[in-house]
Write a structure and sequence with these properties.
Distance between the termini: 11 Å
Structural class: alpha+beta
Radius of gyration: 13 Å
Largest sheet: 3 strands, antiparallel
Strand content: 25-35%
CATH topology: Alpha-Beta Plaits
Number of domains: 1
Helix content: 10-25%
Order of helices and strands: EHEEEEHEHE
Amino acid sequence: MSSLKVWIDQDLCTGDGLCTEIAPSVFQMHTDGLAYVKEHSWSTIMGPSGGSEPIYKMAEGLALIPDSELESVIESAEECPGECIFIESV
């Protein structure tokens, strides 16, 4: 595991989904039309339909980048039209 983490600023996200095409195991689109970092430890809450839904928040979306995905995450950040993908060292 690299010592880098990635997160998305949803206020800047344009919803183009390029990151999900480049690194689908790290990023996913949500029903709100914005991209999020996949975080395997998301909590669940009861949604309006009564079912459990993941909580999508930037702070909870901060995730370690697997070594095997480092290049694709960097490419996603470089190609992102909204410039909303941020990579930081831990």
